[in-house]
Amino acid sequence: MSAAIKPPVQPRKKSVKLLTCHKCNENFDDGRHQAKCLPCLHTYCKSCLMRHSGRRQKFNCPGCNKEVNLPGGTIDSLPNNFLVQNMKGHQDIFKDKIACGNCQEEGNQAMSFCHDCSCFQCQTCVDNHHKMKALNHHKLSTIKDLQEKSYNPLMQNHCQKHPMQTLTLYCRNRECRSAACASCGHTNHRGHDLIDLTAAADEIRADVRILSSQVNKKSQKMARMRTILEKAEKTLLDTFNQKQRDMYESVQQVYSLIDSRYNDAQANLKQLFQTENDRLTGNFKTIDSLTAQMSSACEFAEDACDMGHPTQLLAAQTQILDRLRELEQTPVPENAAHNADLQFTAKHHSALTQIQELLQHLYDVDGPQPGPSTKGKGNLRKPPAPGPSPPSPLLPQRVPQADPTKCSIQLKKQSERKWCYRGIIQAVDFSGKPIKGGGAAIDARLDDGKVLIVNDSKDGTYWFDYEDNAYGNSIHVKINSTTMVGSPFKG
């Protein structure tokens, strides 16, 4: 296979990225922050992986969520990232001043590196290499040439069995597949499929780059698909929010209309009550007046019969008898309480009937069945006593719902603890007005899925505390099961 050779990547540009753990932002070292490579090719320090895995043999990668099955049951069994090891050694090449490692005098500036001596050489030592027969066959590279290499040129490339020989061959036999020196090639790998080490690396490099190019193309397709998904998600969210606003406005219109009809009907009911009550009050007065007159006349007549002188009784007989005859002939108002009922006007009766029919229809849509007070027509409650009007019996108490597209959040660092943050969410309704309390079911979690406890301040704000621990966690927030605009948020 062959592939176009890409220009070497300058290692210094990637040093920060390669030498830092993306989970804790600590530099890799040879101890607890040793760089460990997962099967999915993501690299994290040993400390973070031990904490993330919980010492389980199976866990998911913190970066891509791919399942990891530890080959030896522990984090130590994972291979070290050789790129990190190479880069750490390669950093020495980019120092402002490199001292000669061959001179006894200190401070001589190195100009080249001898791969056979495995140390830096100043110009004098380089000249000596060229003059001396024992050294003139050594391989020398200038500092500039070393800096242009895309890999660590200082890496020891000597055979472990023959330390004086470099690895120049590669055995392609299935049971070997390893680098070898010339001596090992004649002994351990006799009759094997041996090729030049550099040529073998070039073949693998070409295969890797071809496959990497194909994967990159697929990754670009994935990126385009993600863009389509993001548009679909935005369309879905916009549609959901618009439907919510439409429902909210429709319900508000129904509430407003029912409130208006209720207030009109209540005013009409009060007027009917007052008219009928005035009639009954007048009848009360008439009956009470006639009763008083009859009682007084009878009492006077009885007293005149019992205590009056015959001459006096005879003299007043006409007046007494005429008054008693008059009262005796006075009719009793038998129909004084007749029609003591309240009848709405046709307009208000029709409005209430329509409201009750609407309620019946709403109850029929998988809702509770109406009680006795809502069945039938004209089934009205007793008029309220004089005083403040009670709340409408037809209307439930309404709580404004929060709009996830308009709510805001603040993440503040707490001064008393280094990595402690507090998030404060201001809930607003679909019209943008702050909600004074309730109306928002808030779900807040960290990147690792940890659920945060959200507290309701009862004034339209909600708050939660969390510890970032320098891992760069983001906060994912949902309001009423809808992702809040701008989520996830970074402290």
Q: Summary?
A:
The protein has 491 residues and is α+β, with helices and mostly antiparallel strands.
How would you describe the overall organization of this protein?
With 491 residues, the chain is of the alpha+beta class. Helices cover 39% and strands 14% of the residues. The chain has ten helices and 19 strands. The protein has helices at 11-18, 46-53, 82-90, 123-131, 143-147, 182-186, 197-307, 310-315, 317-329, 346-364; strands spanning 35-37, 43-45, 58-60, 67-69, 110-114, 119-122, 140-142, 169-171, 178-180, 194-196, 408-413, 420-426, 442-445, 451-452, 455-456, 461-467, 474-479, 482-483, 489-490. Helix 1 (11-18) crosses helix 3 (82-90), helix 7 (197-307) packs antiparallel against helix 9 (317-329) and helix 7 crosses helix 10. The longest helix has 111 residues, at 197-307. It is rod-shaped and about 180 Å long. The model is unreliable at 1-13 and 370-399 (pLDDT under 50).
Alpha-carbon distance between the two ends: 49 Å
Overall geometry comes to rod-shaped
Looking at the chains present, what oligomeric state does this protein adopt? single chain
User: N-to-C SSE series?
Assistant: HEEHEEHEEHEHEEHEHHHHEEEEEEEEE
Average pLDDT figure: 79
Low-confidence stretches: 1-13, 370-399
Tally of separate helices? 10
Radius of gyration: 49 Å
Sheet with most strands = 5 strands, antiparallel
Helix content: 25-40%
Q: What is the count of β-strands?
A: 19
- The fraction of residues assigned to DSSP E strands is 5-15%
Structural class: alpha+beta
